[in-house]
Every structure is written in structure tokens, then in C-alpha cells.
Amino acid sequence: MNVTWNPNWVRPFESGWSILEKFKYANVLTSRDLLREFGKNSVKNLKGTLIGRQHRGLLKYEGFNQESLKEALMININEHTQKYLSLMIGMFPRKTKTSYLLRDNLNYCKICITVGYHSLIHQFKFIHQCPYHLCELTDSCNNCGQTSYFELSNHNKAGGFICSCSNHIVDFEHYYIAWNFNPEIKNKILEQWLNLDQTAANKVQKTYFYFPGLTSKTNSLEFLLRFVAE
Q1: What is the pLDDT of residues 80-132, one digit of tens each?
Q2: Which of 21, 52, 139, 178 is most exposed by smallest CB count within 10 Å?
Q3: Rg of the Cα trace of the chain?
Q4: In terms of Cα–Cα distance, which of 47, 23, 18 is closest to 34?
Q5: Are 65 and 40 in contact (CB under 8 A)?
Q6: What distance lies between CA 192 and its chain's CA centroid?
Q7: Beta partners for residue 136, in sequence order
Q8: Which of 39, 38, 53 has the alpha carbon at shortest distance from 1?
Q9: Looking at the chain, which runs of residues are DSSP E strands?
């Protein structure tokens, strides 16, 4: 398959969701088209129009043939995701479930989406504002108010950043030049968290946390940074 794509459109901390939404937009594909072309054989052979959630995950990409997707994107999307997840949550104990730390529903910044960008940081339960624009995150379509899971969509609409209501989640720049957005983290607390030294990271690694209580705090990262500094 000949594709329209530029690996420079993939930005630091970008989620697999917006990488694949851009790819779908640039090549006028549905999610089903994407999995038919780049899915594992077991996924390609599925009958019907619905695709099970187990095939649409965007943390480990279980439904995809990693090599064929890498060839199309010119990057290894799984390695990209794991690299930034490690920087963000890799200091927690190894057995910590990602569901304790990452939101199930897609959370995004309306300004970032206008330039085709969504960050893994937007899914981090300890963050409530966009780290780049310092505005509140939202979790629903700007047109119909519907929420979506953080996964490859399961509707049959061709193109990217489209809700099941057939509208774009928010209006966004259709010009590929806008996809060269350079995300600069302005949240200083988050910046400290992402740059923990090894001693602080080891302290987090060896500590048991009650995550429901921790994620309910509005100042979770400040609390954790004070804890590791003690």
C-alpha cells in the first residue's frame, strides 16, 4: 500500500491515538481499513464491521502487525509509546496496573487537537491541565458531547479525529504543516517529575501507593515530589 506520511509528524510524548488518527486522515482510512491493512492475520480475518476492544488498544498495539505498521509509519510506534510511558510512569512499582495511572476515556486539549496532536500526558491521571497550553482538559466531543475510550475508534467514518457523530471532535488545521507542532512543557511540577533523579525514582519504585486516594488529589504530583524530597 502506498501511503501519505511523514515521520516528522510524530512529536515527543505523542500518543498512538493521534499518530494513527493523522495517518487515517492523510490516507482517508477507517479504523477497519487500518486494521485490514496493518493488523495481525487473526484480526484481518475477522468477520463483520465491529472490532473487539482487545484489538484496538493503543498501549501495546496487540491487534497490529508491528513490522508492517513500522514500515508504513517509518517509526516503531510501540517503542515510541513505551519510551514516553517509561518517562511518565516508569518509576512506579513494576506491578502497578496502568489503569491506576492512565484514564480509560480519551482526554485531550482542544488547542493541541487543532494541530493534530494528543499527548500521552493528557491521559495521566495526575494531570488535569494541558502541560503545553495550561488549559483544562476535556473528555467529550465538541459537537455531540459524547466521550470516547482511549483506543482506536470502532466506527466506519473515513478520516481522522472524527467522532461517531460524524463530526470532527474539534475543528482542526487540515494542513499538514500544522502537524509539525513543537510541544513545550510549561508545567514546572510535571517537568520536575519527568526529570526525577535515580535516587528519587528508586524511592517511588519501592513504595506502595493507594492510587484511588492519590489520583483523587488535585495536587498529586506536588505531593509525590515532596515525598521523594524528604
Answers
A1: 999 999 999 999 998 899 999 999 999 999 999 999 999 999 999 999 999 99
A2: 52
A3: 18
A4: 23
A5: yes
A6: 21
A7: 129
A8: 38
A9: none
